[in-house]
Amino acid sequence: MTTILGFDTSGPYCTAALLSDGRLVAEKTEEMGRGQAERLMPLLEEMLAGAGLVWADLDAIGVGVGPGNFTGIRISVSAARGLALALDIPAIGVSSFEAFALEQPRPCVSLVGAPRDQVYVKEFGTNTDHTPAFCRLDDIGDHLTQTAPSWVGAHAEECAGRLSGTAVSCKYPIAEAIARAAAARLGEPVTRPAPLYIKAADAAPPRDPAPVILP
User: Which three-class secondary structure state does DSSP give residue 212?
Assistant: First the structure.
């Protein structure tokens, strides 16, 4: 039996999901604008206990690496790397792009919302691994190489109507998608997860310093 824990704090929430041999056995999400650093580990422990499991039962960890809130991403990535080291199991980083595009028809454009009518965008399903972009919603067409794709994520319906293609819904909540994407990569060589930052921070640093991410 393979048990995988997936979690994410890249947005205004703490969310986690637990898979056992591909079956969702637990899921927990709490909306919050701040406080993820204090809440993440207790939430994970509560979810494991509710499923009758302990940390030692885990075979791998999937963690959301963004894009999104800078501090939130670092909270999850730091926790995943620490748990992986302590438990001697792999930690697999999964972007929000990959989570949204999981099991979607290709070609696919995955969209992650950002403030002030801006968006993070990444294409899937062509022969080239496209670099993610950060742009204004009105400028998405300038960053695409394919026509009539499936659109998934933030503003999907608007983009499909304006630029052609079909809007589709995410197949799974983000934490479950992260866990499933990580499960699909088990056995492959992996590097330690690292935050996916596509743009520079545009806000003042938080009063509490973010956890340090080692290279």
Answer: coil
The whole-model pTM stands at 0.91
pLDDT in tens, 146-175: 888 999 999 999 999 999 999 999 999 999
β-bridge mates for residue 136, sequence order: 118
Alpha-carbon distance 206 to 153, whole Å? 28
Cβ contact 5:186 at 8 Å = no
Q: What value, to the nearest 5°, has the Cα angle with vertex 77 and ends 85 and 82?
A: 20
Over the range 99-134, which residues count as b (16 or more CB within 10 Å of their CB) and which as e?
bbbbebeebbbbbbbbeeeebbbbbbeeeeebebbb
| Tokens (6 digits) for 83 | 């748990």
